[in-house]
Amino acid sequence: MRSTTETQASSCAKLTSTTHKPLTRLRSKQAGHPSSLRSPPLCSSIQSVILRSSFEKRNPVGFGRSYSKICCGGVSIQSSESEDIKPRTPIRRLRNFEWDKNEQIDVVSLNNLCVDIILQVDNLPASRDPSSLSTLTSGPPPSSSYWEVGGASNFAIAAARLGLTCLCLGHLGRDVYGDFMLGVMDQEGVKMMQVVDGSFPEMCQHSGSFFEGPSHGHPDKLKTLLHPLAFEDTLLCWVFVDPQHRHGFCSRFDFTTVPLLDLLESLPPKAMGVIRSAEAMIVNGFVFDELSPNAVEEAVGAAKQAGTAVFFDAGPRGSGLMKDVPGGGRRALEYLLRVSDVLLLTQEEAETVTGIRDPEEAAQSLLRSPGSLVNWVVLKVGPKGCFLVTHDETSYHPAMKIEVEDTVGCGDSLAAGIVLGYCRGYDKMTTLAIANAVGGSTACRSGAGRNVATTELICSLLQSSIESCEGSDGNVYRESAQNALRLLRTGKKSAKYLL
Fold first, then answer.
1. Does the structure show a pLDDT above 50 at 231?
2. 3-state helix, strand, coil in the chain (%, to 5)
3. Fewer CB within 10 Å of terminal CB in the chain, N or C?
């Protein structure tokens, strides 16, 4: 069911420009924008299936033609007949981006990389258990037409479409899913680099389904559950969508408290070099699914020493980190909340990490905490828009009036607008106008990944906002939308596909 978001007006003080070291180079790539992916239809009844646990037996590349029916958490799903999926033989290794020190990277995304498999269901699963994941992964996957890139790609693609040169640091397996993501990201102009080098998997001595070694933060736990083929596999996230466009998610990280690369104490030298040379780095809470808190802290510390602006979006993982999951997670969370240049939080997330219900008071507590280096706190309040809180003032910009199709990826897309505005020195209201337009454009489309905001739709929303603003507060919003539209159309080295 589609709903129209309501905007709210709020008085905003006159804002001054915020400066940061300017982006020295904005690089553009032509991006394709395919229509939204449609998921398989529902089946009318539950059919018994023989489960074959993915942790016991796998066929990662030899897919057949029929996916048929599965049952997960009481939800029955049926996919249409899958075409033959024939991977290249042998499957090529993910090659690191051959970074040239003379080539400027505007923003590095440190987050997990995954491929979403999108399934329509009548009702979202009431609960999840390990058997759900085994059920989903026991048979051949649906047709690749139901795949979409997820995780870090939502932010990265939105940023690239805004004209930023973006590089994703993460883990991809040597499988068809990894190849799929590489192809999509290459088409979108996003660079990729592995967070591990070729020697790391060989350092790990496996015994059955367990890795023998300490878990950081919990030295008494000597065994860490780890799939023997973990380094070969790309993370899959099963996305359930009901008729009301609500979502449920299921991946292997929902059933473990240990990062995939738990023993990786630091990133490879190449990755650290890119971080130090970039204008900005955005860290998402989901990165702790793959990297240890030690590795994340070291990467952030290197960025701060080099003058790279650090953005932190805690996301849903913030509540787990507060409970010290994974081990050392709370220490890493507190470090990121203290040293980041910009924090991006929903109202609920702000309350989770501060214990303060009032969002503006929560933001001020983060800005004024001992040793805080935070300059901006961006509070996302859904259909109401977002606030930008600094030491001196609070700015507010209402959301765009849109028909909501799907909210997945909206926060990631909004973050791309915030990064653009902060690093290029745009004033706060203009930055919020861009961010709201990017997030709103994504909400107008179904699914994330390649279906995040297009620059054409961003410009269209800004133009509509200019025409619909009324009253004294409306004049402020109209001016910010006009500035945003002008900058996107005529900004230095703007993307060639901007109108």
1. yes
2. 35, 20, 45
3. N
As a whole number of angstroms, the distance between CA 434 and CA 397 comes to 10
Check residue 285 and report its DSSP letter: G
Q: Which two tokens stand for residue 164?
A: 């930023």
Q: What would the two tokens of residue 219 be?
A: 């030295």
Place of tokens 């496996």: 206
* Identity of the amino acid at 221: K
Q: Is the dihedral of CA 220, 225, 229, 232 positive or negative?
A: negative
Residue 238 has a CB neighbour count (10 Å cut-off) of 23
Size (the chain), residues: 499
For 119-128, 394-403, 409-418, which range has the lowest pLDDT when averaged over its residues? 119-128
Beta strands per DSSP E along 31-165: 69-72, 75-78, 107-110, 113-120, 147-151
Alpha-carbon dihedral sign for residues 66, 185, 114, 1: negative
Place 277 in a pLDDT band, splitting at 50, 70 and 90.
very high
Q: State which amino acid sits at residue 264.
A: L
Q: Output the CA torsion sign for 261, 266, 271, 274.
A: positive
- State the CB neighbour count (10 A cutoff) for residue 213: 16
Instruction: Tell me the pLDDT of the chain averaged across its residues.
Output: 75
Instruction: For 423-448, give the DSSP string.
Output: HTT-BHHHHHHHHHHHHHHHHTSSSS
Closest alpha carbon to 86 in 50, 102, 62, 105: 62
Who has greater pLDDT, 135 or 355? 355
The bridge status of strand 210-212 relative to strand 75-78 is: unpaired
What pLDDT does 376 receive?
98
Quickly list DSSP for 357-422.
Answer: SSHHHHHHHHHHSTT----EEEEE-GGG-EEEE-SS-EEEEPPP--EES--TTHHHHHHHHHHHHH
**Strands, DSSP E only, in 52-165?**
69-72, 75-78, 107-110, 113-120, 147-151
Residue 16, classed as helix, strand or coil, is coil
Identify the burial level of 255 via C-beta atoms within 10 angstroms of its C-beta, where 0-12 means exposed, 13-18 middle and 19 or more buried: middle
Distance CA 160, CA 189 (A): 7
| Strand order across the 206-207 sheet | 206-207, 210-212, 223-225
